[in-house]
Specification:
2 copies of one chain form a homodimer.
Chain A: H1 3-17, H2 25-36, H3 42-53, H4 58-82, E1 87-88, E2 91-92, H5 94-97, H6 100-119, H7 126-151, H8 158-183, H9 188-215, H10 218-221, H11 227-231, H12 236-244, H13 246-254, H14 258-271, H15 274-298, H16 304-315
Antiparallel strand pairs in A: 1-2
Chain lengths: 318, 318
């Protein structure tokens, strides 16, 4: 078992021993249900690794990681209502298995419980962790609202889009590793560098998700090729295509035949080299992440675990 | 201007100067909209009075009161979605003026902002306030879920009902006065006595609301007489009626003629003296609240402001 798997096992064991307890069942069962659906547990991993990098007390790292996972799952429960999503990880979403009021309320209670855990936290840097977490929580709400607003707008610029995905996805990754490091008594400079590392990593991953949805081998991704195109999702590719040639873009997206539409759009985007530009942007973020790692190492921190994590996370994208 | 009005003015001025600021507008405008709809500002009043009773720094009292009002309004935004309510205080609810996703998300962000305010609080007893607030927030969620569960259950006992209304309504009143007092450097014993006082006061008010809906003079209450009966709402009166004679209860509620239904049920409840029993229970809570006040006074605290508040709040019920 490699280190990443071991950390995942440790977290899942912690989770089993720390399920939510309370009454009524209709409030607490949905909370435990969503937490049990699994996943890679990227946020707890980041906190645990942040803590270990600076030789912190591992108990504090896992505890902080759990808070990040609770917050992440709160946001999933509410996002699934907003997105009218029926399933998550092959199981019904909370509002489908129960109902919308129950999903709203159990989500609310998860946010309260994330704070309850924070307030009962006994390790180092409690105030800094509370502040970082709270700033992040508001940014995640702002990112989700921007995402919804963008769906009905035709004037979204690329910077706003990148800002939105940073808030919606990357900041919680940054918060997870930073707070994990702070729980290990990390100094401010290194904890901020770790934060920036995770932001850059998160941006690269999010953009790669978009890239692979359109240009990836659907046998490997397990998704329908061009799913984002068919949904008219405002990805980096979509928005750039719109900005470069609004008329051509509109014409291609007006095609009502789904199969010719996807292929024509992919061919056009390859012709205008959007695929290469997207890969270049991903590469830029990856380079920034590596620069962050180098600076962290200069502070005497061994970043091997982060490299392992990057490799582990990249596997899904091959 | 009496003291209560002055405190209300102070709070409304504080609110005007402390509106939420942030982007996107679709997230922050709904937050400021719900806060601006007004009301008696009972929770800020309780915090400000709790603070003044112990001669605290009034700035801390109003700050804590604002946090309670933000939390209260968060719960209103989400409850209105769950209850499918179209209007509040004569204005459209947030999910009607905007939409449900926006209402979910701006509610979430209000809960985050309540914590942000708490984290930035610089007065006395920060930890105790954070703990009291967080315990209360979870209880409010539990109370709301119980309320929803009870609507589809036929076996709700009276104690569970009282526990539900305590969580749904009274605990935030208790939290408001207790945290206000703590912000004035109040000792634990008196702050707990103030908490109990507000719980008993809140229970009496909630039960009086139910009583007046059925037995009050609708010219004064401004509500349709028997609104709860027509909705089949599981009030203290409904549940007791059901427990005393399930068959008779069912027969009366099966009447499809609304006007004879309301009158027949009221006559029956008067005959079996449910009206008197309800008033007796309210009186019991009021007596308990007054005992709390006496004990608070024995600790050298002048409770005149609380008496003023009680008189002010009672006016609506005459």
């Amino acid at each position: 078992m490699n280190t990443i798997e071991k950390l995942q096992n440790d977290y899942n064991q912690f989770l089993n021993q720390n399920s939510f307890k309370g009454s009524p069942d209709n409030l607490y069962n949905p909370m435990n249900y969503i937490m049990s659906l699994g996943g890679k547990r990227v946020r707890p991993l980041l906190s645990m690794i942040g803590n270990q990098l600076v030789n912190g007390d591992a108990q504090h790292g896992i505890y902080i990681g759990h808070i990040m996972e609770v917050f992440h799952n709160f946001s999933l429960v509410h996002d699934d209502i907003m997105d009218k999503a029926d399933s998550r990880r092959g199981k019904p979403t909370v509002h489908k298995k129960w109902d919308e009021p129950t999903a709203i309320l159990s989500g609310d209670n998860m946010l309260v419980k994330a704070y309850e855990l924070l307030i009962n936290y006994t390790g180092p840097n409690k105030d800094a962790i509370l502040k970082t977490f709270t700033k992040t929580a508001a940014e995640v709400c702002e990112g989700q609202q921007n995402d919804m607003d963008f769906e009905s707008r035709n004037d979204v610029d690329i910077d706003s889009y990148l800002h939105m995905i940073q808030n919606k996805t990357a900041v919680l990754l940054g918060c997870s590793i930073k707070c994990g490091a702070l729980s290990g008594n990390c100094n401010e400079q290194t904890s901020n560098e770790l934060y920036d590392f995770a932001i850059n990593m998160g941006m690269a991953f999010q953009l790669m998700d978009d890239y692979l949805d359109t240009f990836g081998n659907s046998d490997n991704t397990g998704k329908i090729k061009g799913g984002d195109i068919l949904q008219g999702k405002k990805t980096w590719l979509f928005l750039n295509s719109q900005h470069i040639d609004q008329e051509k873009h509109q014409e291609l997206f007006n095609d009502e035949n789904n199969s010719t539409k996807v292929n024509a759009i992919i061919a056009h985007w390859q012709k205008i080299e959007l695929d290469k530009q997207c890969l270049q942007l991903i590469e830029d973020y990856n380079k920034k992440a590596h620069s962050n790692l180098e600076r962290i190492e200069k502070n005497g921190v061994d970043t091997e675990l982060l490299i392992e994590l990057l490799n582990y996370l990249s596997e899904r994208q091959n």
